[in-house]
Amino acid sequence: MILLTLDWAFIIEKLILIAIVVSASLVIAMYATYAERKVAAVMQDRRGPNRAGPFGLLQPLADGMKLFFKEEIIPNSSNKFLFIMGPALAMLTAMMTSAVVPWGNKLEIFGTTVSLQIADINIGILYVFGVVSLGVYGIMIGGWASNNKFSLLAALRGASQVISYELAMGLSLIALLMMTGSLSLKTIVEEQMKGGWGGILGWNIWYQPLGFLIFFVCAMAECNRAPFDLPEAESELNMGYHQEYSSMKLGFYLFSEYINMFISCAIITTLFFGGYDMPFIDESSMSVNMAALIGIVAFMAKIFFFIFVFMWIRWTLPRFRYDQLMNLGWKGLIPLALANMLITGAVILARQGF
Amino acid sequence: MLNDFFILMKFELLPAVIFFVLLFIKVGTAELSNASIIRLANILLFINLVAGFFYNKDGGMFGDMFHTNALIVLQKSILNLGIFIVSLQAEAWLRTHKHVIEFYLLLLSSLMGMFFMISGANLLMFYLGLELATIPLAALANFDLEKRKSSEAAMKLIMSSAFSSGLLLFGISLMYGTTGTLGFAQLPALLNGSNLQVFAFVLLFAGFAFKISVVPFHLWTADVYEGAPVPVTSFLSVVSKGAFIFVFASVLYTVFKPLADTWYHMLFLLSVLTMVIGNLFALRQQNIKRMLAFSSIAQMGFILIGISGSSQAGTASAVYFVLVYVFTNLAAFGVVALVSAQTGKEDITDYKGFHATNPVLAWVLAIALFSLAGVPPTAGFFGKFFLIMAGAAKQNYWLITIAALNMIVSLYYYLNLVKALFMDANASPVPKITFGVYAKLAIVICIAGMVLSGLASVVYEYIYNLSTGF
Amino acid sequence: MSTSEILFWFLSVLALFSAIMVLVSKNPIHSVLWLIVVFFAISGHYLLLNAQFLAIVNIIVYAGAIMVLFLFVIMLMNLNKETEPSRNIWMKFSGVISGGLLLWIFVSATRSAGEIVGKTAMIKEGSIGLIENLGKVLFTQYALPFEISSVLFLSAMVGAVVIGKKQ
To answer: Which parts pass through the membrane (chain C) (predicted)?
Structure first.
């Protein structure tokens, strides 16, 4: 048997990294459901879940087990293969984006440097867009395979919403890429870390505030989060495109929304808020492992802050109507993103002196 | 350099400027009536036509993506003339149409595509120009929005042109794969006639042949011409075909010179098939638009004879015939457009006794049909004469004989229509057509063109001096 | 067999198999999904040739946008096996024969081509596919086709709006 010329150490290192990232995403998404209910409670002046375990901390486990134990209903006249594939696609694309996010700087274990990013490809941001474009299929196939007119309508609405906001998302990032000069997420973070005051002055939020706002709004629309959650509007199209789903398939859909939210916040942090940069601390002056750990802590703190902002907005604003949503996407955000691009280009040219 | 840019690309910049003027009128708040928009568009197209004749020079820009010389300037002026006459004739139909500005926008972008295709010296630019020329036409074919036939015509056009573009692109990529370059200047040296290159050339040829609707790639022509609104049909049959003939001749003579023997045989076979099948099918048609469609297919067969001559006379006769064809076909389609816009009648039986109610239009249509048939002293005779002279240079007398026989056959269905116009009586003939100043101007230009471009020999001599062959 | 060769053979087989399944599937939605698999396989080939930008843009544009549009149309028009018109068997025969002839000629022309026999593709070495080089060439040497394609998109949009707008 010819031994394949593969680098086994490399593969094992990446597999461990993938396993850690995936399980971390799952755990964080689980507790994001819990946090959502607690934040909702705070805003609505009530207590939230506090029965399952101390302070209700075991609530997500209880929810998960409930979903596992429920009966699997597969509608008779639906397309069985596609029916099962819908939630699988949604979960797959939610997880795939986490491959290019730089979770921290490098670690030095036993003499080898382990970079805390699963894949540092030099088209990092485009990969994120590619995966987001594929995320549409989870919704559409789920809606179609349910063999239900309401699900189909909701799925098509959801798909058109995702496509419209995907465009503005891409345009808003062009200005950022012009400034950084590279598509690789690692390079973007490293460029930001070069700013003054331990890195905080280099964060892209100061240079691209409009881009950040547009990207933030589009990220909310991509995750189907309120106020953009028309496709899963509980009070309108019954339950939207996951109406016919039960048990763990429904669980996958709901869960993939939270994982999407987590990863979107990670990307927002990476692009605009310095990624794993801890402000006011000069990372090059301490040991590599220590810097990496501080970086991971800082990164997680920023992500949790943004998740809180997502939830804050959800429980504050009412839902958009479909035509208002489309108007905002096409007639509001795209011209703003183009204007942002032009202004950034003009300023860069002016600073270079033509 | 900037000066160069404006002068060299004048032909492309002018339609682009008109495009954006119309676009801003559409998006703006000014509520202009259809009549004023049509007047503005026609004035701008006239300025576009006239400005093309002055202050031209030879040169190239953007590497080999754009080049121009006197022959290309002439070809673009012919297309400008074509689009101006089409726009004049479209006025009757556009008066009550809801999307006048979009009509002009799509027409102008198609024209720009043709210009870039003619000036490109690179297969990539050629392909982009081809796509830019075709896609707006597919949308335009649907402009009779209430009629189902119009949607059917648009569907057939887009489906068949997408398929043929696919074949063309496959040929281009194989050509790039075997030679390593896309530029017209570098390709002839690298063509060594290997099997894969000949295969790629055949695919390219098929793409071209589709666009000029040569048999056996003609199946889209009749249905699209019948279903599309008449001004769009006239644009398709005259301007679009003319542009593709120009590019075809120039590409075959310059780029594929090493494969000259191969394409000579292909042209021979295709022109025979085209003339014979075009004429045979035209004999049976009852709808005048379909008849004119098949007649134009047969005319393309004649042009292929001229191109196969591969001499200076080959290019010159092809360019000259396109000029004559502009005047002739637009005259015929102009009359059909007027009748169709006012009464919606398109059958040959409806045209019986046309002379009694509309003598002027009947004469115009008759002269156009004589010119199409090749009867002297109309320009069509001279056009066909020069084409067959150019084709005879290769001493392929079979081809000439078949061409002559086909001319006789085509005379039958043209004269059949002339007989219906003048000699048949009709209980309910077409009523008196009122036509405005635009249609009158179009008819005058076409008649003058048909008569003068034949009798005034300076026209052909000028074209001959500009042409190159090998 | 190096990794690239294994990947090449795997992706080629996947692409061909999925392409055949596109044609053979009875359910049009299955055809669209198999076509998406074909696009993934082709993007994999592009990655092998080190054309990274092309690979990812292929996914974003083709698999992510155009196929979504196809799915919209199929779902809204509810196309399935029953609405497909049945064709004359002689048409099917002539289709098979002409397609088969084309395939035969293409394969024989490729096999006898002197330019290709005995050469290997540049895997992981070419630099023209990297995004910096592609950007530089696109905006200098190929600036004119770039601008023409923008006019093409604009006119296609105008045409689509005219046809599609509700009167």
So the answer is: 6-24, 31-49, 55-77, 89-107, 142-163
